[in-house]
Amino acid sequence: MTSEYGHEHEAPGSPARSEPGRLPVPAVLGAPFAARTWRAFGYIWLSLPIATVTFVYAVTTLALGAGLLVTFIGVPVLALGLAGCRGIGVLERARARALLAVRVAEPRPVRGRKPGVLGWMTSVIKSGESWRQLLYTFLHFPWAVFAFCLAVPLWAYGWAMLTYPLWRWVFPRYADVPGIQLYGDGHREIYLDTPGEVALASMIGLVLTLLVPYLVRGLTAVDRLLVAGLLGPSRLENRVVELESDRGAVVDTASADLRRIERQLRDGAQSRLEGLEAELGLAKDKLAQDPQAAARLVEAAHGEVKSVLQELRGLARGIHPAILTDRGLGPALSALAARCPVPVRVGVDLPDRPAPAVEGIAYFAVSELLRNVGRHSGARSARVDVWRSGHRLMLQVADDGRGGADPGAGTGLAALARRMDAVDGVLVVDSPAGTGTTVTAEIPWRTP
């Protein structure tokens, strides 16, 4: 097994923090010019025409398809309308990815259970993703109108008022008025023309210019939620994909275990039994001619049989120890710790026994971790703690070795993490260089 210890690594640096009491002035002043702000503003600007077109398309196809359902024509019209909404989803996911940095997974393509066009239309109409993307077109339109009507005028007014001192000269030269007219009724007219009024207008424009970027980002946060919630795979589909991946990991793990057992039997017990067969055959041939030599061969074969039996018992213990089935996790882990070359303290605090499958997963997880401790950690002592927390079985293996364990550097911890993930478990490795390693695992508790 590749060593997983002794690799020094630095913890990721924490982000720089501003001193207490200091305002992030550069960030505020730079917000109107930040690329993130302009991308968000561009997203809002494009949303209005795109949402208008997609809303009209969705309403038209849905109304036409529903109205024609009394005839057979309504089914293909509705299917094509929903397929178009799925195409709109592709466009909107790409736009959100480019302008908002929102990466949403593509939903599964529609696959007809029945061959032919009719099967495809049925699958499109029955697909939940199709209807959720249709819902997106209905919800996105009013929000796009609101966001556009709020963000664009405030953005324009903010920049116009901020730069008013630079272009106020246009009014007296070309309009024969001293400035922007604020009020006029034929008897009284009010203009922004005095230096104080111009300065106040510019200050108001500065405030709007600095605050509108954060308003724009807040508005696009709703767009992020709409895209992530309605245009991506559903929770059920994500769970199906996760279970399929976990099933693949379980199959791979079981296949690897079977190959390991086959290899141990072939290279160990099987080859030794073949040697015993040869020795006993030789003893049988010498039994009549040289009884003493035959007796010595039988005696040697008897000793070899004892050794093979011990090896088979160890192999059977590695598959599933009898003590785990008969007495539970506590005694089984104590027996496991007794065979570790490093002194191990075991603490098991469980109110009752979990399901046998959960006990087996916990046992083999601790076995793998103690094997790593004995081979790679250089520890003087270790401890194993097992307890229940709510609906989770918690186990922790800690040692005082050299640390530096990296799940990505070896095969043991990475394989164990995949096994935990396959049963909705979690594996967390804390291994600072020079201070030992602590591995904590969570496994769903299932009662027998």
Descriptive report:
By secondary structure, the chain is of the alpha+beta class. The chain has three domains: 27-230, no CATH class; 249-318, Single alpha-helices involved in coiled-coils or other helix-helix interfaces, CATH 1.20.5; 327-444, Heat Shock Protein 90. The chain contains 14 helices and seven strands. Helix 2 crosses helix 5 (128-162) and helix 9 (235-286) crosses helix 14 (412-422). The chain is elongated. Residues 1-21 have low confidence and may be disordered.
What is this structure's SSE topology?
Layout: H1 25-30, H2 35-67, H3 74-99, H4 117-126, H5 128-162, H6 164-167, H7 170-175, E1 180-184, E2 189-192, H8 195-230, H9 235-286, H10 291-319, H11 322-327, H12 329-338, E3 344-349, H13 356-377, E4 382-389, E5 392-399, H14 412-422, E6 426-430, E7 437-444
Parallel strand pairs: 3-4
Antiparallel strand pairs: 1-2, 4-5, 5-7, 6-7
